[in-house]
Each structure stands twice: as C-alpha cells, then as structure tokens.
Amino acid sequence: MIGSPHVHHRLTDSTNERAKQLAAAGAPHGTLVTAGEQTAGRGRQGRSWLAPPGRALLMSVVLHVDERTPLAPLVAAVAVCHAFPVADAIKWPNDVWAGGRKVAGILIEGRPQDGWAVLGIGLNVATERDEFPDELRDTATSLWAAGADVATPRQALDVLVPVLDPWLEAPAETVLNEWRERDALHGRPVRWTDGEGVASGVDDEGSLLVETATGVQALRSGEVHLTRAG
Fold first, then answer.
1. How far apart are CA 150 and CA 160, in angstroms?
2. Would the N or C end of the chain have less CB density within 10 A of its end CB?
3. Which domains does the chain have, with CATH numbers?
4. What whole-number distance in Å separates Cα of residue 29 and Cα of residue 132?
5. How many CB atoms lie within 10 A of CB 229?
C-alpha cells in the first residue's frame, strides 16, 4: 500500500532522488517520499520543477517493477484526474491539464534491472498566478485556481494516495481507455524534433501515435508540441 512507510522532508533536493536512494537500499513497494520544498526538483529531460514552498504536492513513490510499470506515468495521470475532477485532460507524455493549463507533471526513473522504479508527481495545489515564473504564467495553473476544494499539499496528498493506490493495480486496458478519454492531443497537429503530424492516440505500450505524410509513427519518448494551427 502506498504511504507505508512515509518519509517527509521539510526541505530536500528532490523527492525522486531521496526515493531512489531508499529503493536502492531495499525500501518496500509503496514507500512514499514527500517534501515541503525542493531545491533541485526536475521534470523530464532535465527540466527544473519550480514550486513555491508549501504550495505544491511534491511526492515520489517506490515501485517494485512488474509488467505494469511501463504504464505507471499514464496510471498516475489518470489517478490525478480521478482524484481532482478539475484536472480534465492529459498531454502526452507526462502533463496533466486543468482548463488547458498544466497542473501536474509526472516523472518515472529507476533501475529495472534491480527490480525497482520511482514514480514522481509534482502537483500545483495552491500556487497563485503571480507565483509562477513569467514564462509559465499563461500555461500553468493550480488545483485551487482551477476551482478544486483543496488548499494545502497535505489535503491533496490525502485525496490522491487512496485513488492512486488501486489504479496502480488496474488492468492495462482500463488504464489506457481512461487515458484515451482525456487525451489532449488527439486529432491535433503536433511537432517534435524529427517531424510533425496529427496525433492519433496512444498504443498499448503508451507510445504516442502520429499520422505523418509517410504513415503512422509511434513515439516512445521525447517531447511533442502543439503547432500554431492546433
């Protein structure tokens, strides 16, 4: 069960780093690490995850690897949407949106060869618009700003964990169907480093399918962006 044990840091570098350290030392499945503030929080591809102290839920969960682990980021996104209905869309590969703005980011890291992974979730809970960096003020939001009835990271944690726990055990087909219902990119023109096309959902492994001029391409990782036309 997620949250037993639970390690909380008032201040740490990164909850994912602390959780990886615990996992490497043999921490059980479900070990939860949270923090009030991070000095080196990060998202995918080394980007920084910035959050004012006490305004965001910063959490990482140790997972023992099984056949469901590759879908864990999709599971986490679906769970966030179920826990907080204001979160109404998911942008592949790891962003949860509320009203068209990013409210959460998800990052999975680990050592599958050693049997573990760490699932990190950063969820803006009560961040005000003027607390976001200038470049994010028009694209990011928080649960509170989007109308959710939660005002603190602790409240958000108490809501999310009981929802996330069973979703991690859910059949892959159920997870994928729920994810597809909230797919923010489906049918919209996208671009990435090596090409462009129209997003057409995800396959059973969670790869993004894109219809291009030369056929359907499956993107297993990386970043995609909506084109201006989207």
1. 11
2. N
3. 6-181 (3.30.930.10), 189-226 (2.30.30.100)
4. 34
5. 6
pLDDT in 10s for each residue of the chain, 230 residues: 899 999 999 999 999 999 999 999 999 999 999 999 988 765 544 555 567 788 999 999 999 998 888 899 999 999 999 999 999 999 998 899 999 999 999 999 999 899 999 999 999 999 888 888 888 889 999 999 999 999 999 999 999 999 999 999 999 999 999 999 999 999 999 999 889 999 999 999 999 999 999 999 999 988 899 986 54
**DSSP assignments along 152-218, one per residue:** SHHHHHHHHHHHHHHHTTS-HHHHHHHHHHTBSSTTSEEEETTEEEEEEEE-TTSPEEEEETTEEEE
Pairing mode, strands 32-35 and 6-9: parallel
The amino acid occupying position 45 is Q
Mind giving me the DSSP string for the chain? -TTSSEEEESSBS-HHHHHHHHHHTTPPTT-EEEES-BSS-B-GGG-B----TTSEEEEEEEEE--TTGGGHHHHHHHHHHHH-TT--EEETTTEEEETTEEEEEEEEEEEGGGTEEEEEEEEESS--GGGS-GGGTTTB--HHHHT-S--SHHHHHHHHHHHHHHHTTS-HHHHHHHHHHTBSSTTSEEEETTEEEEEEEE-TTSPEEEEETTEEEEE-SS--EE-TT-
Q: What is the pTM of this model?
A: 0.92
